[in-house]
Design a protein that fits this description.
single chain, 181 residues, mainly alpha, 10 helices
Length: 181
């Protein structure tokens, strides 16, 4: 809904037309919203370009660093992605999605200790966050850490016996690779 309003407004700004009484949208925010729009339509390369341009205007935006880090990760530019995800968590230490991105980065680079630390940071005070535990378990399964994946899923079940669909899917995948005893 917000993009339906902001994208036309951004286009109006681009051609220099601002309707009377409508406050102008800050340029960094405009570029950020256009980047989100591009990312939602699957054009991650274009989205990354908009995020990079927005970061020039707002270098201390945790949201921009997070979005650019995630986009770069999708594009396979892991080292650049890590820099922006680390900057996002430095600016906003409770940004669980940035911590999750870092956890996945460290898992892909076989640094289990850093991956676990980033995961613990992503869960933070919300130990009951099944979505985070299930996503992390799926990544653990993909990387071959089956026992740790089982531990995360068992903990998710212990905390909240009625799991969401992600927990159920992760358990199904794990059971196919490593049946319960």
């Amino acid at each position: 809904m917000l993009t339906r309003i902001l994208i036309p407004a951004a286009a109006a700004l681009a051609v220099g037309f601002i309707p009377h009484g409508v406050p102008p949208i800050p340029p960094a925010e405009t570029l950020y919203v256009i980047g989100i729009d591009r990312d939602q339509y699957g054009d991650t390369q274009a989205a990354a370009g908009f995020y990079e341009r927005a970061l020039v205007l707002a270098p201390d935006s945790a949201d921009l660093h997070l979005s650019l880090g995630l986009a770069l990760s999708k594009l396979g530019r892991d080292d650049e992605s890590r820099v922006h995800l680390e900057r996002a968590v430095a600016l906003h230490p409770t940004a669980d999605v940035a911590w999750q991105g870092l956890a996945l980065y460290w898992l892909r680079h076989n640094d289990w200790d850093r991956a676990r630390n980033a995961f613990e940071q992503s869960v933070g005070a919300d130990r009951c966050n099944q979505r985070v535990r299930a996503s992390f378990a799926m990544a653990l399964i993909d990387q071959g850490y089956l026992n740790e994946a089982r531990r995360q899923l068992d903990e998710a079940r212990r905390i909240y016996p009625r799991p969401d669909a992600r927990v159920t899917e992760a358990e199904r995948r794990l059971d196919a690779l490593m049946p319960r005893r």
